[in-house]
Amino acid sequence: MNTTTDIAPDAPITQDLVCINCNYNLRTLTPSQLCPECGHPISITLNSTYLCFASTPYLKTLHFAYSNILFATTLLLLCHTIQALICIVNHVGIDNIFSFEVLDIITTYTGFRPNFDQFLGTTAAFAYFTSLFISCYFIAFVILLTKKNSARPKRPFLIAWPYLVIILSIIIALFHIVFQEQHLMETSTLLRTFQTLWFLSAFYITYFVLFRFCSHFIFGHTPSPHAKPLRLLAYLFLLPFAINLFNDLFQHFILYPYFSTGRISTPPQFINILSGILHYSAPFFNTFNVIILTIALVYIFRFRLHLKKLIKNQTTNINN
């Protein structure tokens, strides 16, 4: 495979390479020429951090990381779909879905009367804790994705974020170990808020970082129209993060004190209205999580296909 260092100034480019300025295919042209479409120096394009110039081992590392991120996202999508369905069922009401007559029929034929409330609660808890473990698995491969390489985008915050999440995870674990016996994790509003902030950041902000990071990759062998959609998708993950964080802060610092022991006054009308809006909009936001995770799954799959094509092209060039 040709690289930026082994192409002579007058040697033609022997592989597909798009201009960094206008996406014109520069194949058969020489580095000393200008792009016929926009006049941009071809030498500048050759010195760009294109993935088509990256080493095959690095591309295989990216492909492996994206394959595991794809798997983790699929599992997270399944967990969030379960949580969204349970949230919708809880808002609609079990009695509106399964009447007493239906329960009597089930009991008559099976000899067992199902407790749907207990089943939904157990399932929701299982999906929640499973998503925590999957998020850790997901973050591990985001770290692998930021492996140092000349073709890696130079974005210090995006590279440092996964490590910061690991540090926060250790701090939360220490909180649980130190304060669990005193039951402070259940009674301290500040600690519970910090724990919620960690979980929201580990999930939403890490996906934001992932897609912002991916939007800076340039393939080189083909135009890169993925950048703008990935940036938009990254910012979409900030919306549920902000809403969930606001909801948690509102519940713990504004609404909860009115129902705590010894509080006599009742909440103002606007607080009751806002509480009702947040409560009844929960199914919508859970469904929104499912939608953006589905879109994320599609783009991760497409990015992985581009990497697979690059690896295949390099293998073919080496064999030839």
Which short descriptors sum up this protein?
mainly alpha; 12 helices; about 325 residues; disordered N terminus; about 70% helix
Question: How is this structure best described in words?
Answer:
- It is a single chain.
- This protein is mostly helical.
- The protein has one domain (51-319).
- 70% of the residues lie in helices and 0% in strands.
- It has helices at residues 42-46, 56-92, 94-97, 100-110, 116-145, 156-179, 184-187, 189-215, 227-236, 238-259, 269-280, 282-319.
- Helix 2 (56-92) runs antiparallel to helix 5 (116-145), helix 2 runs antiparallel to helix 12 (282-319) and helix 8 (189-215) runs antiparallel to helix 9.
- The radius of gyration is 26 Å and the shape is elongated.
- Mean pLDDT is 79; it is low at 1-5.
List the topology elements.
Blueprint: H1 42-46, H2 56-92, H3 94-97, H4 100-110, H5 116-145, H6 156-179, H7 184-187, H8 189-215, H9 227-236, H10 238-259, H11 269-280, H12 282-319
Helix pairs in contact: 2-5, 2-12, 5-6, 5-8, 6-8, 8-9, 8-10
In helices, the fraction of residues equals over 70%
Q: Distance between termini?
A: 10 Å
Q: H/E series, N to C?
A: HHHHHHHHHHHH
Q: In percent terms, what proportion of residues is strand?
A: under 5%
Question: How many structural domains in the coordinates?
Answer: 1
Biggest sheet character: none
Poorly predicted ranges: 1-5
The count of β-strands is: 0
Average pLDDT taken over every residue: 79
Radius of gyration: 26 Å
What overall form do the CA principal axes indicate? elongated
Multimeric state of these chains? Answer: single chain
Count of alpha and pi helical runs: 12
| Overall SS class | mainly alpha
